[in-house]
Amino acid sequence: MILKLNSVTKDYIWGGTRLRDEFGKIGGTRLAESWELSVHPDGMSTISGGEYDGMTLAAFIEKFPESTGKNSLGSVPILIKLIDAKDNLSVQVHPDNDYARKYEGDNGKTETWYIVDCDENASIIYGFKDKLTKEEFRAAIADNTLLDKVNVIPVNKGDVFLIRAGTLHAIGKGCLIAEIQQSSNVTYRVYDYDRRDDAGNPRELHIEKALDSAYRNPTEIPVKQRDNADFQQASELVSCEYFTVFREDISGSGEIRRNDNSFTHILIIEGRGEVISDSDIHAAEKGESFFVTAGTEWHIKGNCSIIYTVV
Ligand code: ZN
User: 51 C-alpha vs ligand 1 centroid, how far in Å?
Assistant: First the structure.
């Protein structure tokens, strides 16, 4: 079975208008994130159309636990978002599973970014240049020199980054990103550019928890430059213990695929087409998401680029 999903949008202060104008998302003047696949209580996907119209994906999976496949039986351990950073996101870190489960009652967060589009001089922050002690890290936050100590990496459309839990990071302004992450909503902010929210207040920082959670060693930057790659064949963008992400460009008819051990999430990032199984056919536009139950044969017709993810 293939379910079309409704997304949930978030209007964080750094968001822009591209998700509304180019990706068909519904929201006000500022639209920072669209949660494309989520069973997280902070914003749950619902099913659009068909027999289960309006049901949350979480309720559907509770009713049909085998629909996720045996790799994550009865659960969707990932969360997939589109992110439009009109402005810089805060410099932040996410805890690992042990810390998050102990102190937050949530999962840790390892995430991956696929740069769907970006401005010419866009960049991200990824990890430290040099090893810092906890006290040096604390001092750099206090005396406003943290940005001198981090790696600033220029990005291009098509780049892929894996950001493991504990890696200090920030999405820079001008990036439009597909983020595939563990299902978690725990973020420790350490620097927010002295910004104010709509009420004129600074957003909360979480410095002690960030100091506990962050790796202070320099990390190798696992970037892949994929802009010129040929995606006529499905190509793996990134794989880790939590998810594997592929990109494929379809012109005409795509290959028939089936995964017996995992559900598949399909996100249309460019163009339009139809997502097809034996029992379903859905028109698919740029920015739309589909949940394919484990064991379902699916393929796409049309002219489009997709990202698809399995666990
Ligand atoms: Zn993050």
Answer: 35
d(Cα 196, Cα 239) in Å, to the nearest integer?
37
Q: How far away, in angstroms, is 115 Cα from ligand 1 center? A: 14
- Ligand 1 centroid–CA 92 distance in Å is 7
Helix (H, G, I), strand (E, B) or coil at 28: coil
Q: Are 306 and 266 in contact (CB under 8 A)?
A: yes
pLDDT at 294: 98
pLDDT digits over 161-199, tens only? 999 999 999 999 999 999 999 999 999 999 988 888 888
Centroid of ligand 1 to alpha carbon of 47 (angstroms): 26
pTM of full prediction above 0.90: yes
State how far the Cα of 267 lies from the Cα of 281, in Å rounded to an integer.
15
pLDDT of residue 29: 81
Residue 61 CA to its chain's centroid (Å): 21
Q: What angle do CA 100, 105, 107 make, to 5 degrees?
A: 50
User: Quick one: which of 22, 44, 47 has its CA closest to 35?
Assistant: 44
Residue-range domains of the chain with CATH: 2-224 (2.60.120.10), 235-310 (2.60.120.10)
How buried is 300 (Cβ within 10 angstroms: 0-12 exposed, 13-18 middle, 19+ buried)? buried
Residue 229 DSSP SS3: coil
Mean pLDDT taken over the chain: 93
Q: Ligand 1 center to residue 94 CA distance, Å?
A: 6
Q: What are phi and psi of 6, to 5 degrees?
A: -90, 140
**272 in Cβ contact with 303 (< 8 Å):** yes
Calculate how far, in angstroms, residue 300's C-alpha sits from the geometric centre of ligand 1.
Answer: 31
d(CA 118, CA 157): 6
**H or E segment and range at residue 98:** helix 97-103
Supply the residues annotated as catalytic: 189
Strand partners, 246: 236, 308
